[in-house]
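Structure in, sequence out. Go:
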């Protein structure tokens, strides 16, 4: 069964982790050739990192302001101080850093360093979305669906999800698949468009979308029943981190009912998919081959 996400959209969008953007040290570029490996990376304590970030933030570096806010929020190199965290997130927002606006929005949404204000939260999430921050677009969509800090507007929420998906936000693409599968939020039910969005989300690495594609092939939704493709997508969802308990029985059932050659084909296609995914997403967390 396709996940019923949108009756509980607010829960799915519950407090996101606030951004942590540490500057990449440039000192290694100046090391002489042949420097022993143990000397190629300088070790810096959290307190020293905090001092560096504080100095850079005071000089006007917006990324440093954002990082300093996170260090105050998490107690990295300094005692936790949510009021100071909000202060530095606000300075990053004032410097027009989209992540700064997003983090200020989260602070006002959950009442971190303040009494909480859904309208101010909305305003900052909206600004982060205007600056094309993918998670800002996604969050703003949720607010229009739930009416938190703004009048409900489901059609605009869908449009924001589309924009988020276009920027590569995989959860947004998967959620659009659910919307088109269910025909919710005023959208026509369209099995083929739902499959297209699940496929887009899967291509971006979303394991829930991979599981949803397996269901399409299992139930013959808009296409013939195909147990080989079903096994391929369940396998990819498993490798991508979807809870194993939800997949183990389905994978075992398929392997018991398919020939060894068919299982090998499904797993080979899964391996090939992972290889292609890695080529598309260098440096990103990757689903693992077995």
């Amino acid at each position: 069964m396709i996940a019923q996400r949108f009756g509980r959209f607010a829960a799915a969008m519950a407090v996101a982790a606030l951004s942590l953007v540490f500057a990449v040290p440039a000192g290694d570029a100046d090391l002489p050739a042949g420097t022993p490996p143990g000397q190629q990376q300088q070790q810096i304590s959290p307190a020293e990192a905090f001092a560096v970030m504080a100095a850079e933030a005071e000089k006007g570096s917006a990324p440093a302001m954002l990082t300093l806010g996170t260090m105050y929020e998490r107690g990295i190199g300094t005692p936790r101080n949510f009021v100071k965290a909000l202060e530095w997130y606000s300075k990053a927002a004032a410097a027009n850093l989209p992540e700064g606006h997003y983090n200020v929005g989260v602070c006002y949404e959950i009442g971190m360093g303040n009494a909480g204000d859904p309208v101010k939260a909305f305003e900052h999430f909206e600004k982060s979305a205007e600056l094309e921050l993918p998670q800002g677009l996604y969050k703003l969509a949720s607010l229009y669906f739930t009416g938190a800090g703004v009048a409900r507007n489901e059609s605009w929420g869908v449009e924001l999800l589309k924009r988020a998906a276009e920027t590569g936000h995989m959860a947004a693409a998967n959620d659009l698949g659910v919307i088109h599968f269910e025909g919710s939020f005023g959208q026509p039910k369209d099995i083929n468009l739902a499959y297209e969005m699940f496929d887009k989300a899967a291509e971006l690495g979303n394991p829930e979308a991979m599981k949803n594609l397996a269901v399409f092939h299992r139930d013959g939704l808009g296409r013939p029943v195909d147990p080989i493709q079903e096994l391929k997508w369940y396998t990819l969802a498993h490798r991508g981190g979807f809870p194993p308990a939800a997949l183990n029985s389905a994978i075992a059932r398929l392997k018991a009912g398919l020939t060894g050659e068919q299982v090998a084909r499904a797993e080979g296609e899964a391996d090939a998919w992972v290889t292609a995914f890695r080529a598309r997403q260098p440096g990103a967390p990757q689903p693992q081959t077995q």
